[in-house]
């Protein structure tokens, strides 16, 4: 037992020394290398830290570059998708505005015409000579053209040429005469529209020529060719203008309407004139209430009335009032026809509302203003009138 113990005790220190030598070998080797470098330890540590930082920065740069390349590829894919989708469609397919402008700029043909004005008789002779290179409207590559001619100052009087079958180069050689005063020439436009005749369907318009007469020297005969353009969607017919004044006195509930004059009224008679008179009507809460009218002025498009009408309107009802001014053409044989109308009040818009507001803002003071007449249907729809009834004044 003693021998065994002694042997164990002798071998243990040798093992310890060998393990210690192994553990201290590496630090000793590094220390030896460091001792050979002629620099202090703090400098060596600083160099090691700097190298480590550079290594970290290098790794970060590599990672960023890889990520950027991936993102760039994704963006390229997205851009390609956009090009294949809506961008390509927008490049290939034009907008609706472009399509409409393309249709308007489409070649429709040419029209040769002549203008001659007689200052003594105040007559305008319009010669429709011929057309060339008209747009084909039929499946066979031809058209059946004819011409409609009118003045915007009197759209009731329209002339129509003969129909020429299956041709794109018709020769009309027709003359139409219009009665137009010299004073109205500058504000009138001559319209010549070429249509394609169709026996079983609506006639299609090929194109039109619009000539503002104020642009022409009517001292000489004019004859020339002009390109057809797309027809206007809606003809703005001039109905005329009317001037009247308004005054309201809240203390005695008195509303005064003075119909002064009108001008440039629409022609309603075959003579090219009208027999105008004016109706003044009050509407309360969308129901007809009171009305009065002027005398009739014979054979004129610029009548002078200067007639005053007084209405009793309580101050607590003035905000609910619509004032309707309508111009009529008197006819002894047939029914009177409305030329145009307008209404004022808190429900009105534009110049009508401004005129009404100026009257309320200036009590006891008459406010006069010119107004353009509007189509009867538009005004009636805006008013939304209910059935007629007679309303007694409040407090009576």
Descriptive key words:
single chain, 396 residues, alpha+beta, 5 helices, 16 strands, flat, disordered N terminus, disordered C terminus
What does the model show?
The protein is built from five helices and 16 strands. The protein has 396 residues and is α+β, with helices and mostly antiparallel strands. The strands form four sheets. It has a four-stranded antiparallel sheet with strand order 5-2-1-8, with no helix packed on it. Strand 6 and strand 7 form a beta hairpin. It is flat. The relative contact order is 0.08.
The parts where pLDDT drops under 50 for at least 5 residues are: 1-25, 71-101, 387-396
Query: How many separate helices?
Result: 5
What's the count of strands? 16
Indicate the overall shape.
flat
Structural class from helices and strands?
Answer: alpha+beta
Task: Report on the biggest sheet.
Answer: 4 strands, antiparallel
Radius of gyration: 47 Å
Order of SSEs: HHHEEEEEEEEEEEEEEEHEH
- Strand fraction band? 25-35%
CA distance, first residue to last residue: 145 Å
Strand order of the largest sheet: 5-2-1-8
**Percent of residues in helical segments?**
25-40%
Quote the average pLDDT. Answer: 79
What is the gist of this entry?
Helix content is 29%, strand content 34%.
